[in-house]
Specification:
326 residues; alpha+beta; Chemotaxis protein chec; Surface presentation of antigens (SPOA); four-stranded antiparallel beta sheet; 10 strands; bacterial flagellum; cell membrane; FliN-like_C; cilium; cell projection
């Protein structure tokens, strides 16, 4: 806390100024901490809130890496390059004039967010999806064809089904793919001076490297700001990570359906007899205990019978397999 002058000290200071013993220039302001604030670049998020947002998107990059690896069947590496707050105009100025922009509608905030996919990354994705090898994306100078647009839409609309999952500990949001655009000047998801969060993702697909950049307007993040503190973050994570009670697990397992097959008997025939079988022929089988199989493994032995007019099996013995605890 800054030192507060007493009334006696104030009177002595004024008296020294009036008598000439002290000049006004001698009252130094060098110890006063003054911070320049630019209202055109208003910083709405604290460092703690940005750290929470970074942790959320680290989870998203892991999910996105696994998803794209499965879709493209090649080496994928996605890492967060930076997370910062800028105004929307600066974000638009920082991305190429010809790029690929996937726009998403976010509810219940009634806002829109966008992921900018560098053409190198987008063309590398399309090469793999269309059966190509490691094609050179720099050879492409045109826009997306209609088929390529649909492919990019499908890949990233499914990818962002996972995006709402990483926010579930903070807020229940719904993300829906809305449109694809190639010119940033035609995309208006926020006012030019509105603060947005920019998350740059360094992306490697095989031997191709590029960037994907996520832009989230303040309108979307604002309702969640009180929950983006470290205390709220870890408390919400602790609640979701509490293991289920054994009773709940057992109850869930009880509702699972498994196939059960009863083997009536077995018979052995020479191949010559098998080839000569005709309609009406009778095959003799062993008439021992019936084998009741669960998922193709014999688990019970029983006897045939009838129940309410239907064939049935009466369990007579439990059959243990190797490795079971008797």
């Amino acid at each position: 806390m800054a030192d507060v002058l007493s009334q006696q000290e104030i009177d002595a200071l004024l008296s020294a100024l009036n008598s000439g013993e002290l000049e006004a220039s001698d009252v130094s302001e060098k110890n006063q901490k003054v911070k320049v604030y630019d209202f055109k670049h208003a910083m709405r998020y604290s460092k703690e809130q940005l750290r929470s947002i970074t942790r959320i998107h680290e989870n998203f990059t892991r999910l996105l890496t696994s998803y794209l690896s499965a879709q493209l069947r090649t080496f994928i590496q996605i890492d967060i390059d930076l997370v910062e707050q800028v105004n929307y105009q600066e974000f638009i100025a920082s991305i190429p004039s010809k790029t690929i922009l996937n726009i998403f509608d976010v509810q219940p905030m009634n806002g829109k967010m966008v992921i900018e996919i560098n053409p190198q990354v987008a063309y590398a994705v399309l090469e793999r999806l269309l059966g190509g090898g490691q094609g050179d994306p720099t050879a492409r100078d045109g826009g997306l064809t209609e088929i390529e647009t649909i492919l990019i839409q499908k890949v990233f609309s499914k990818a962002f089904d996972m995006y709402q999952n990483v926010w579930e500990n903070i807020e229940d949001i719904k993300v829906r793919w809305e449109a694809i655009e190639s010119n940033p000047q035609f995309m208006q998801i926020a006012s030019p001076n509105e603060t947005v969060i920019v998350i740059a993702l360094r992306t490697t697909i095989g031997e191709i490297e590029g960037r994907m950049t996520l832009c989230i307007p303040h309108l979307i993040v604002e309702p969640m700001l009180p929950k983006l503190t470290a205390h709220q973050w870890f408390s919400s994570m602790a609640k979701t990570n509490v293991p289920k009670q054994p009773e709940k697990i057992k109850k869930s397992l009880e509702s699972i359906k498994v196939p059960i097959i009863t083997e009536i008997g077995r018979a052995k025939l020479p191949v010559s007899d098998l080839l000569n079988l005709q309609i009406g022929d009778v095959i003799g089988i062993d008439t021992g205990k019936l084998h009741v199989k669960v998922d193709h493994l014999t688990r019970f032995l029983g006897n045939p019978g009838l129940l309410n007019g239907h064939y049935a099996v009466q369990i007579d013995q439990v059959a243990y397999s190797e490795g079971d605890d008797e």
